[in-house]
Amino acid sequence: MRDAVVRWSLFIFGLLALGPVAGWLTGALRAGDGFSHVEPILAESGGAAGVLRAAVGIALAMGFGALVARMTSTRWGYFCAGAVLAWLAAGSGRIDEVLRVSPDRAQFGLIALEGALLGALVCAGAFGVGIAGRQGQRLDSVPHGHREDRHDPAGDDRAMMLQRAGISVVVCVVASVLVSYVAAVSTLKGQTIAAAMLAAIVAGVLTGLLHKQSQGWVLAAGFGIVAALAPAAALLLEPGAPSALLLRANSMELLAPARVMPLDWLAGAMLGLPIGAKWGVGLATAEKT
Length: 289
Prior knowledge:
By secondary structure, the chain is mostly helical. 74% of the residues lie in helices and 1% in strands. Mean pLDDT is 88; it is low at 136-155.
């Protein structure tokens, strides 16, 4: 009972106290028209200043996640960090808003750069949360009654570890593409963050089933790659003519993964991965019993 009270008290504190602070960091940024919300790297005040504000929000979220992980568990640390990141994402712009202000396909290139930068920060933060919570242990592992399914990272063959990490990243990318076409049917923030969270749950379940374990920072890195690849794909595949691009944006015909903005992917990852990994490892355990 006491542990549950501590866990939920920390979550509510992050959601209702730290979250609004993170939301203000991106919500105060404006596009060139002076009133539309915008991606940090496209802010009227300058891309560097916008990315810096987003980086401060990420540091706040992941630092809080590390504190929570130290007090409770790694999974709960990720989840609480995701709650703060969701506010940060909610304050940023939507892709249709961005293109209405400036219908230029080059915007996707800048958004891809933002996704790479912020994704690297979240990956580093997720690694720190893992260290704080379980001293580098897996996000979840098979219970002690199934010791044959547990793997010590120090004892694993390096090539095998790299192979697992590569497979996990591929799973994250594929899950993100497929789920976005099903769930990201609009650019409303609630929908895009939920789509990212659902993709993270699916990726967590699949990697848990494949490897009987999940490394949180590797999965976070996978979604950091998604945050950069989705707008990069739009840069290559969307039409260059401003009128055609604006028409596709207004009619919700843009590539589905590109409707989900980088901060949406990263917030959804932190919220969904601990849930999916827990389910996936649980299913793997059930198959062995």
